[in-house]
Amino acid sequence: MRNWRFFAIVIILVVLLDFYIFQALKTISQGASARWKAVLFNGYWVVSILAVILFALLPALNDPDWRRVRTYIFATVLGLFFAKLLASVFFLVDDIRRLIQWASGKLFFPNTEGENISENTISRSIFMSWLGVGVGGALFSSLIYGFGNKYNYKIRRLSLTFDNLPPAFKGLKIIQLSDIHSGSLSDPKAVAHGVDRVLAEKPDLILFTGDLVNDIATEMDPYKEIFSRLRAPMGVFSTLGNHDYGDYIWWETPELKKANLDRLKQLQADMGWRLLMNEHVALEKGGQQIALIGIENWSAKARFPKHGRLDEAYAGTEKYPFKILMSHDPSHWDAQVRPHYPDIDLALAGHTHGMQFGVEIPGLKWSPVQYVYKQWAGLYEEGRQKLYVNRGFGFIGYPGRVGILPEITVIELA
Q1: Could you tell me whether strands 154-160 and 407-413 are parallel, antiparallel, or unpaired per DSSP bridges?
Q2: Which pLDDT belongs to residue 3?
Q3: What Cα–Cα distance (Å) separates residue 54 from each residue in 43, 57, 63, 146, 296?
Q4: Burial class (CB in 10 A: 0-12, 13-18, 19+), 302
Q5: Closest CA to 350 of 323, 370, 378, 324
Q6: What are the Cα distances from residue 304, in Å, to 241, 259, 323, 351?
Q7: C or N terminus of the chain, fewer CB within 10 Å?
Q8: Domain ranges of the chain
Q9: What is the pLDDT, as a whole number, of residue 123?
Q10: Where is average pLDDT lowest: 69-78, 161-170, 236-245?
Q11: Handedness of CA 396, 139, 330, 349 (dihedral sign)
């Protein structure tokens, strides 16, 4: 009942927004032929009404067979809504300007009819309306285009220098993967190509920093064989992310939820991955050792769990000259790692996906997620400590990528 009430409220707001946008369309179509107006107006309302109908049908598409279709419908409708919302900002700015202009005329020129400025006012309204339509249309087009980028894996390479790294580990090649979200994947061939690219790098060590699934361990069944191919001389290690606990769906009993997590743990063992659950292992090369620490999900954000116990995982690592930490949520770094564990040299995280939307070009790196997470993608350094945040191998929610491509990170220690 609550879901239907929520959907009803959203639909009412969307319809009101549609009528507001429609006023702008009438502005930009001034002077157009009647035929062109009919095409524009009818087309707008057909698309808008169809979007409302599809949105209203979403609660009925809960069957697993419809889950991926539901995701695309939701993403398209949501993208259309945000495009309209962004466009309406420009319309609102213009409406505020016209309101101020009208009020100023009434206040300071009460005896003036105002015909002498009406032509200029209309002209500027058309400009702002076209600008709003253009920006909104560009946003929606980019979101549709992004559907084709979800398997467009980008290899990001970086060389990290540490003064305290044992000489035997100089040149160690690490591949970091994160946020596979197998429940969102739908193209095993494309995913296998991504795994091929990992193997082609011939890494010494592969580290996965959480969110193997969206909710349920069985989501990995179609991809278990593919990811079982991941091998490295020093091993494949993993940690848990917030989605791995099954917290975002309803379970009939706590025992079923626990069984799901147990199955996910066993699945990783079956694939040959070593899942680190608030513990550490020693990595040895050339008679020298470093520590690899892995904790369960720990977030500084209130809505995410704090299962991680870094105190337990860290205990006993004091003797190692160099330490790598795998912790899914990057907010952990500022909240606990840097203040209390200054000898953890390199932390690896994921979680943010770079919001799967943003801009990364020389001189500009931006995504809306940066207003929530200070460290959201790429390399961050404070003193002698470093954090790398992987942009994610998979996707969730929006089935695409705009500007922030799925990532395979290649790290060489120096």
Answers
A1: parallel
A2: 62
A3: 17, 5, 16, 21, 38
A4: exposed
A5: 378
A6: 10, 21, 26, 11
A7: N
A8: 2-147, 152-413
A9: 47
A10: 69-78
A11: positive
Tens digit of each residue's pLDDT (9 = 90 or more) over 361-383: 999 999 999 999 999 999 999 99
Look at residues 220, 204, 328, 340 and name the one whose alpha carbon lies nearest to residue 278.
Answer: 328
Q: What is the pLDDT of residues 133-157, one digit of tens each?
A: 899 999 999 999 999 999 999 999 9
Residue with tokens 């239907």: 4
pTM (global) more than 0.85: yes
CATH, range 152-413: 3.60.21.10
